Amino acid sequence: MAVRELTFRIMRYNPDEPEKKPHLQDFHLTEEPGMSLFVVLNKLREEQDPTLRFDFVCRASICGSCGMLVNGKPTLACKTLTKDLPPVTTLLPLPVFKLLGDLSVDTGVWFRDMSLRTESWIHTDETFVPDAPEVRMDNELALKIYEAERCIECGCCIGGCATANIKSDFIGAAGVNRVARFMVDPRDKRTEREYFDVVGTEDGVFGCIGLMACDDNCPVGVPLRDQLAYVRRKMAVAGWHYQKV
Amino acid sequence: MSHYDTFVTDVLVIGAGLAGERAAVEAATQGHNVILLSLVPPRRSHSSAAQGGMQAALGNSAMGKGDSPDVHFNDTVKGSDWGCDQDVARLFVETAPIAVREMAHWGVPWTRVTTADHVYDGKVIHEDPENAGLITARNFGGTAKWRTCYTSDGAGHTLLYTLDSMVLRLGITVHDRVEALSLIQDGERCYGAIVRCLRTGELRAYTAKTTVIATGGYGRLYGASTNAIINEGSGLGLALDTGVVPLGNMEAVQFHPTGLVPSWILITEGARGDGGYLLDKNLHRFMPDYEPAKKELASRDVVSRRIMQHIRAGYGVESPYGDHVWLDIRHLGAEHINTNLREIATICKNFRGIDPVTDLIPIRPTQHYGMGGVRTNIDGQAYGLKNLFALGEAACWDLHGFNRLGGNSLAETVVAGRIIGEKIAKFTAEASLDVKSSLVEEHLNKQADRVARLRENRDGTEYVFDLRHEMEQILSQHVGIFRSGESLQAAVDQLRDLHERTKHIGLRGGGRGGDPEMDAALRLPGMVRVAYCIAKGALARQESRGSHYREDFPKRDDANWLNRTLAYWPEGADEPELRYEPVKITESPPGDRGYGEASRGANSAKS
Ligand SMILES: Cc1cc2nc3c(=O)[nH]c(=O)nc-3n(C[C@H](O)[C@H](O)[C@H](O)COP(=O)(O)OP(=O)(O)OC[C@H]3O[C@@H](n4cnc5c(N)ncnc54)[C@H](O)[C@@H]3O)c2cc1C
Ligand code: FES
What we know:
The structure holds 2 protein chains of 2 kinds.
Chain A: E1 5-12, E2 23-30, H1 37-47, E3 67-70, E4 73-76, E5 88-93, E6 99-101, E7 104-105, H2 107-117, H3 139-149, H4 156-159, H5 162-166, H6 172-183, H7 192-199, H8 213-217, H9 224-237
Parallel strand pairs in A: 1-5
Antiparallel strand pairs in A: 1-2, 3-4, 3-5, 6-7
Chain B: E1 5-14, H1 18-29, E2 34-37, E3 54-55, H2 69-79, H3 86-106, E4 118-120, E5 123-125, E6 148-149, H4 155-169, E7 173-175, E8 178-185, E9 190-197, E10 203-213, H5 234-240, E11 247-248, E12 253-260, H6 270-273, E13 277-279, H7 287-290, H8 300-315, E14 325-328, H9 334-339, H10 342-352, E15 361-370, E16 373-375, E17 388-390, E18 395-396, H11 408-430, H12 437-455, H13 464-478, H14 485-501, H15 516-540, H16 558-561, E19 563-568, E20 577-582
Parallel strand pairs in B: 1-2, 1-10, 2-7, 10-17, 16-18
Antiparallel strand pairs in B: 3-6, 4-5, 8-9, 9-10, 11-16, 11-19, 12-15, 13-14, 14-15, 19-20
Helix pairs in contact in B: 1-4, 1-11, 2-3, 3-11, 5-15, 13-14, 13-15, 14-15
The complex binds flavin-adenine dinucleotide and FE2/S2 (inorganic) cluster.
Residues 14-20, 37-40, 42, 45-47, 49-54, 155-156, 178-180, 214-217, 226-227, 230-231, 234-235, 266, 268, 368-369, 392-394, 406-411, 413 of chain B line the site of flavin-adenine dinucleotide.
């Protein structure tokens, strides 16, 4: 196979040099077997421009650090292999999130805020008794909770969401999924009403216009469409309707 | 000092992985103000990548029946090759079941016992219906019972998300995307840390009654490692650079048997625990030849050496990335692989383009874990400096001695977090915060001066990324699985030179704001010093124990080396100074591990 020369058209912006507007810069490099964008970006930084900013932590699609737009699609850079890319690839930072520089965005702050707004913790008055055996749980239920808990907070569902792009307080698919995770967990003693107060608003499920890009974009395959449907169904059964106040 | 942000708190925890967050939760629950610092958003800390599980002797599953803290204790001490602190091991095994259940109470969806029969290594296992719904366990290497509690393929992820939910619930302050650069200290006592904001590059000062190092591992010193790329040992550098706090047993470095070739992403031990085989180039299952008793599930140091031994004997599979062997889990079946081992299937597909349901997985032993770290006493207090604690992978509490068992590290983080967190809370209640502003200023100025010199290339123009790769090469080549005096001496000599050269780093890119080259340049000298401690400790230790294997001294030598290395870096010195302390033996005298080269039950080399 012929060795390919690849071009990466990368958005550059340094908040410390506000006089320079965000712009695209072309980088060139020779493709290697098994190359991922993790390898590409590090090579570019070390060999061509040490100021290039981007985020990786686990480089194994586990930690959710490296979401970016690869030729327009929100995805994890670490699991994107160059063999699946055309000769010219555009890399942009995820929209919606605060831009820290080049491809680095502040997903952490966004998710912390969402977690606080959805009160993403087990609400209970029961105290832990160190010597008692654990409360039993059916394994099927444990798996169901885990299915929602698998979200890695990468922000791909948010960056690719039409509503989130125009409405800054929208909790997005990640937020709805988060509420669903606690709704199925019997250890969380919140009432349905308490969940709906969080999620049954225009910043919650009623903000969603149903394009479902999130479901396609989730790099770890959390069933976001199903989670949204689950929450909607629960609300319908409870006769909950969104009222503007 | 006025142009720097300053923060004051009761407890400053550097590191928001499992260990740091668990300790922070304990201290905050007891009424202290706590600030957590992290290089990255807490949930992205390396703890989230642990997929296998954590050990606790619950004994709920059929294959865990009859388990107890005593059995767990024996496995841990044996695994450590009698290098661990037995008082710590005892405290740990007694607390682990409580810690696991506590995490369940807070929200971890642990995988539970079901009544469905399952097949393991050709045998059908019937679970006790009485135990249905209790927390189950899987098999991990070096354990007499199935003891590793897990959440499908995401134990670390669910533990960290759950603990972080407690951090949110308690309203603990978290500052992410910051890096601690040095401890504020006067040689007697620690008063906090000088920290750099990685968003803006600005320096800040944090002062605290109690400072805690929970910065995780240092695998990236080796370049090829299963660790996250932020695991660069900077927390160990913080302690070492005080001149008075020693690092314990830095030569004890664990290589995991199954790193995926060539990205070195970890294939979890769950693969072998659930029944996977290791095959050579002839597709022969070779582990039973060497280790008839434990086969693929001897302790990690042993399996790693056996693989390398087999490869050296000419049975490796050739590849452009060096010889490797195969991991075979095909016989476990698609359903098992795609639920309990889903993460493995995903990694194989995404990073290697293979499907473990039908394909063999190419693997080779890869740097994975550091048993060594900031030496503390059983309460987590660092040696040498008051008001400083350490825990988690960054610490040498000394639970693991010369080899950690799989599943004992996650367990250590939450167990130590619970126990040491309590000690921190007590200690802090009686501590005062009387720091002189001149001391804070002195430490701030020192870091500000480093930044300025780098930016202006005042000391030279060595390129930080070149130096860094040299360090990785030196460790990988000379301080790996098989070690010898000559090679280690070369490593020490080269690291001494390299350390000198780190004094002459200059920036190519200008270093404005949150610049990644500046990040690396500030970090590297400390990393090289930590690497130096590893190499020098390994050269000095003339015996083989656990993961430390000297070809020129292949036997464990309890008469001379039943001790712990303490590496200090005195102020102004150009190399570390090694001291030793005895290892206390309380319950279990050194003996035969039952696996490994020295064991009576094992076969010797085939070559
Ligand atoms: C791939 C992989 C899989 C593993 N699987 C298992 C398993 O199945 N079972 C098991 O028991 N163990 C496992 N381990 C080991 C285990 O995951 C780790 O030892 C453990 O999670 C370490 O936790 P920690 O809290 O000490 O550190 P970490 O989780 O690494 O957290 C360190 C924290 O310190 C912060 N930090 C570091 N330096 C600084 C600084 N200078 N300033 C500010 N903040 C800083 C980081 O941002 C981070 O928040 C695995 C390890 C690897 C590499
Ligand atoms: S770096 Fe962790 S998901 Fe990509």
